[in-house]
Orotidine 5'-phosphate decarboxylase
Amino acid sequence: TPADLPAVFGDAVGNVVPSVSRGVLRHGPDASGLREAAGRFADEVRAAVSGS
């Protein structure tokens, strides 16, 4: 999960590009569902990387 990124990658977490395609694609094929899911994942990853 995005929350696990700092523990797994430590100080290198800012250099990580997590793969979330399956998590996003399961919210399709509706474009708005895909956009919402992508936005949620981006927010979760951003919060995990910034320590928020």
